[in-house]
Structures are given as C-alpha cells and as structure tokens.
Amino acid sequence: MIHKENSSMSIREEYEITLAPFTQAALARDIPLTQRIWQLSWVRKSVILIALAVIWELAARVQNNDLLLPSFLQTAAAFYDGIITGELLSKVWISLTVLVKGYLIGIVLAFGLTTLAVSTQLGRDLLSTLTAMLNPLPAIALLPLSLLWFGLGENSLIFVLVHSVLWALALNTYAGFLGVSETQRMAGRNYGLKGLRFVWFILIPAALPSILAGLKIGWAFAWRTLIAAELVFGASSGKGGLGWYIFQNRNELYTDKVFAGLAAVILIGLLVENLLFNNIERLTVKRWGMQR
Description:
- This protein is about 75% helix and about 0% strand.
- It is mostly helical.
- The chain has two domains: about 35-65; about 70-285, MetI-like (MetI-like fold, Orthogonal Bundle).
- It is flat.
C-alpha cells in the first residue's frame, strides 16, 4: 500500500521566485512614519530648541521682570527688528570679517608648526615647548599687550584670535599625525613622498578626524574670544562688532537687544557647526569610513 501511494504521487516541478532587490527605500517603508521622522537629526535638534524656547518663555513669565529676563517672544521681536533695520546684520558682518582673518592665519601657522614638528626633531621640541608655555594662557589676557603692540584697531583683535586658534589646532593636528599607522607611512615612503608632499598626501588624510576636531575647537575658542574682546575692547577703527552691540545695549538697559545679540552668537555657532563642519565630515571622514 505504501509503495502504491508513493508511486501515484506526482513529482512537483522546480520553480524559482525572483525577489525584488533589497534597497534602503524598501527597508524604510517597513518603518513607521513617526519613527522615520524622528530618525532625522534636524527634527530632534529642532524639538530640543523648541523645548528650550518654551522653558525660557515660562521662566520669563514667572520672573515677570523684563529688565532682568525678557521673554523669548520679546527677544525674538528685538532680533527681528535688528535684522530688518540692518543694525544687527552690520555688527555680525564686522565680527565675522575679523574672525575669519584671525582664524585663517591661525590655521596656516598651526599647520606650519605641525609640519615642522613631524619633519624635524627641532620642530617637535619647538611645538611642545610653545604649547606648554602659551596654550594655558587665556587669549583675552593678551589683549592689553596686543593694544600696546598694535594699537586701537583690527590687528589687536586678530592677534588674540590667532592665539586662541593656533595651539588647540596644532595640538590636535600633531596628535592626529602621531596616530597615523606605520603601514600608511611606509606606503607613502614607497611612493617616494617626502616633506610637504608626504604631509599633504599621507598624514593629513589619515589624521583628518583629529584635524577636524581641532578646527571645531579652534572655531569655538576664536568665536567666544572675539565676543569677549569686543566687550572689553569696544569698537575697532570706529566700528563695533557683535560684542560691542551687546555691551552698548547693556549700558542703555535694552535687555531684549542684549539677548538678541547673544542669540545671534548662538545662531551663528549652530549654523557653522551644522552647515559647515558636519557637511565636511559627511563628505570626507564619514564617507571614507573613518568615523561613524
């Protein structure tokens, strides 16, 4: 009986099911819409900023003293008026012009020092000695000296900005150079790379995460040093920057404008971080698989 049942069964023909290619879009369709939206970085950051604005507004209403703590809406109105009249934009432009000059000079000097440090023993001793001496020294403490050397003008601000950028960037860059593997160094030597070409084609790409970290730190140091210097130093060549705008409105008790100036400082920091540095990281170290 068993033999007859088995012989009467027909053999099923083989067949093949063609599967759709796997894509990230197909995977995304399986994730709920709310979860997909929450995975966007700018959405999470926007929620954080909105929450902080709500807390600020509530705290100001509880305080109920515009002179001490204006509300978020009052600050936003002052910020809007400063943009419309052009006063706030002109102050921001003056500060950013000085900042970019000092920042670029600091970058050039930092790379010059680190290149010398990885090339010669004297350069290593020079970098370690200078960083040990000058890195702990606050940039704003050099402002009186810069006024004696360069007088009342833009050059005094640029001097303290270079100091704030130079040592942080040099230390991070040099640490990144030291972390380059011996295999990559040997590959560069096998191609006959020496001196600046070795630094440019081997060390800088391999140490780019550390260099970008140094650029971020240098930018933050330079930005806050400039605002502090303008608060102390005041106008430069008859023109005051964002720090001077904050200082002047504080003297006139326009607290909402003071907060508007501080909001401009924060907003510029956020824009530089998210639009400049994050895009550089996305196009370089993250695309190369050097950073998650």
